[in-house]
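ok so i was messing around last nite and threw this chain in just to see what happens. nothing serious, just curious
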Amino acid sequence: MVTIVPFKDAHLPAAAHLLAASHRTHRRHTPLLPVAFETALEALALLDTTWRWPGAAGFVALDHDAVVGFLIGLPGHADDDAAHQGYVPASGYAVRPALATTVTAPLFDALARHWHGLGRHEHHVQLTLADATVATAWAALGFEPFLVLAAAALPLPSPTTPPADVRVRQATDDDLETVVQLMRALRQHHAAPPIGLPPPTAIDDRDHVDQRRMLADPRTGCWLAFLDDRAVGLLTLRPPGTAIAPLHLPPATIHVVDAVTLAAARGRGVGTVLCAEALGWAHVIGYRHAALHVHAANRTAQRFWEARRFVPIAQQRIRRRTDQ
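result:
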């Protein structure tokens, strides 16, 4: 009989073996996933970091004292308006495959009760796309696709006939206001159907500070596209930091964090040239892979990136309380 108990330090070694076994299975279907976490030792280090994250809460499924599943949730952060959120990182969940449909639900029930007491009513979970059984188990709990993580090996294929009227160059400090305005256009696009995120707030000093810092960082690349001397497109690359879970991060990866072409300029090859220039630059300076998140509802963007050899490797699912 399977029982659910709070996660404790003593469960770490067995949970790490379960996480490593799960990752080995996922890599057979998705070779772009990093190889390191196939070993229990590396999985243990990652799991220990997850478990000791401030505010972490976890539960274990035991079958006659054997760990057959675990779930660790982390809090959203009050300083980025996500205090109502809780999320399960990729390193915070693994189950024996045969028990996915029976163990996931009681594990999440225990975690959801904990989150409910803290006012965390929006829940996120990171999953690989290789495990349909696990995805089905989370879908049965009301989790819907939200973001898709896709990755590609560099260099990308060059466009066969780049448009002659599109001019692309790397942004400088003098382009700060242009970059901020294009970022604003991207947020407005995300607020419209089919994505439907909350409408963007007014541009404030934080936007300028963040973009100024990005433009000054030699590890990042911000590229602008022009038609008739008017900026109509933007593509920004940054090191991934914590934006991509280590279990989903191919080696030497650059993160495509922002990409937008103004509506009036779409269909002119702007995005194609931006990708070629920006990701060509990333490959020259030593990056071996590129990764990006695209909204699950945005099929146009997914088709664009798939045409450039980006392969979906993971997803983020979301569950919101219906009475909010």
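not much to say yet. The first strand starts at residue 2 and ends at 6.
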